[in-house]
Structures are given as structure tokens and as C-alpha cells.
Amino acid sequence: MQVAVINRSHHPLPAYQTEHAAGLDVRANLTEPVTLGPLQRALIPTGLFLEIPAGYEAQVRPRSGLAYKHGIGLVNSPGTIDADYRGEVKVLLVNLSNEEFVVNDGERVAQLVFARYEAIEWQEVAELSQTVRGAGGYGSTGTK
Predict the structure, then answer these.
(1) C-alpha to C-alpha distance for 118 and 136, rounded to whole angstroms
(2) Scanning 33, 64, 94, 129, which has the fewest C-beta atoms within 10 Å of its C-beta?
(3) Residue 84 labelled as part of a binding site
(4) Where are the domains of the chain?
């Protein structure tokens, strides 16, 4: 699949870091570092503008290394970039640690995963089919 991209950053385009990686690492495009205190969040620009093909979305996901080493995640994970969005891709980071974290220009702050989706049409019915689970919610499976 080809995705049209405008790169207004001074960094290379997002890239897969290994042969079988699902996500492309996205870099911060900053004029100065951004410091995130504990529980603070910030919208980090990337300088990237995408034209995602219809029927696809780009999912913005956290980087496991930042999460494990520094407690840095995404507020809305995964974030969805819709096929009709043409603005700059920005990453909504949150610091879930007890220590400050500095985001520097060029830092790999998230990853993009492209996924196909299906648009649905609602079919209103009077009742749903029965299953073994039924209406059992959180924590209901595996207990008897």
C-alpha cells in the first residue's frame, strides 16, 4: 500500500525498525525540548501530513521502550487518524511516572500502524442471538 506524505520536519520519514515490525516509528519535530512533569500531557508535533487511502486508518500507538523505561504513554491509545484528515500528525504524550521526562527533537515518540476497517450499517433488532457468555461483563470469563 502506498501512502502520500508531506514531510515538513527535518527528520527522515517514519520507518520500520525491523523486518517484521508492524509499526513505523514517528519522531518529534520540535524547535525546543518539551518537559513533561508527572501526570502532565503534551501534544507533540511530527511535521508529517498524510493522505491515508479510503478504507484504512493510521493508529498512533505508544512505544514500549518509552513506556517501560520512562512511564511515557499516549492519552488516547491507540489514537486514530482517519482517511479524510489532512492536518499535521501530532502525538498526545502523557508522563505516568513520578519523574520529569524531556522530549527532545528527533525523539521517537510513537509508532504508526496502518489498518483496514469496515464501515458498518446498523440493523436494529428486538433481541440478539444467545451465546454461552451472554451479558457477562468485565471479569466474567474463566470463573464458575
Answers:
(1) 26
(2) 129
(3) no
(4) 4-116
Determine whether the annotation assigns residue 81 to a binding site: yes
82 annotated among ligand-binding-site residues:
yes
pTM of the model: 0.88
Ordered DSSP codes for 115-130: EE---------SSPPP
Out of 2.30.29.30, 1.10.10.10, 1.10.645.10, 2.70.40.10, select the CATH number for domain 4-116: 2.70.40.10
C-alpha distance from residue 28 to each of 10, 65, 114 (Å): 10, 16, 19
Cell triple for 70: 520512562
Q: Is 120 annotated as a binding residue?
A: no
pLDDT in tens, 112-134: 999 999 999 999 999 999 998 88
Count Cα atoms within 13 angstroms, Cβ side, for 124: 0
